[in-house]
Specification:
3-stranded antiparallel sheet; 1 helix; globular
Length: 200
């Protein structure tokens, strides 16, 4: 595509991004082979502890700036709700659709666990300590069971499940990105997919 790096080279689709606020097609295939032109705002490598069970970060302030982190001196916060509670059902752009298990999906494709009580369109992580009790960020995966199950010799076998992760994100060297994304701070991820087992 014109205006893209590696123009004319083959691209392998690595994922799909849903942009609910986009006009027209809301689904965009993305590829590490075919990056858009322009300056990168920064990259971040992370090791994610994926699990098909429960994964959580306990508050208050589960993530702190580390030595060598470019944002040393930037205060880490539990949420962006100021003095309000992070305990409300999300609405508006924070809940444009729902997953199969009833969780809100926000306009950028993420999962909104809860929102601020004074602004239910603002997602938050409920890790702040209230009345002596600290909240937590919780994600629960779903183990995939192959169908047809063993010892049935039939192939291919398929299963649909999800892996989850909660983790701490370090800051980048781009101060504006840190401010917009709340870095350093917590993150949570749900990866849903279908697995296929082929005949050995």
């Amino acid at each position: 595509m014109p205006g893209r790096k590696n123009d004319g080279s083959p691209c392998t689709v690595d994922g799909t991004v849903t942009v609910e606020q986009a006009a027209g097609d809301k689904f965009y295939p993305v590829s590490r082979d075919c990056l858009p032109d322009g300056q990168s705002t920064g990259t971040r490598s992370m090791i994610l502890p994926l699990s098909s069970g429960r994964n959580c970060l306990e508050g208050p302030k589960p993530c702190v700036a580390q030595i060598g982190d470019p944002s040393i001196g930037v205060p880490v916060q539990d949420d962006q709700c100021a003095t309000a509670l992070c305990n409300a059902q999300c609405t508006g752009l924070a809940c444009v659709s729902q997953t199969r298990d009833g969780q809100c999906t926000d306009s950028k494709g993420g999962v909104s666990q809860l929102c601020c009580s004074t602004d239910t369109s603002k997602p938050c992580f409920p890790t702040a300590q209230r009345l002596g009790v600290a909240g937590l960020i919780l994600r629960t995966g779903l183990a995939a069971v192959p169908v047809p199950p063993w010892p049935d010799p039939t192939y291919p076998k398929t299963a649909t499940g999800s892996l989850v992760s909660t983790f701490c994100e370090a800051a980048t060297t781009f101060a504006l990105l840190n401010t917009l994304a709340g870095l350093p701070g917590p993150g949570a991820l749900i990866l849903s997919g279908t697995q296929v087992w082929m005949s050995p």
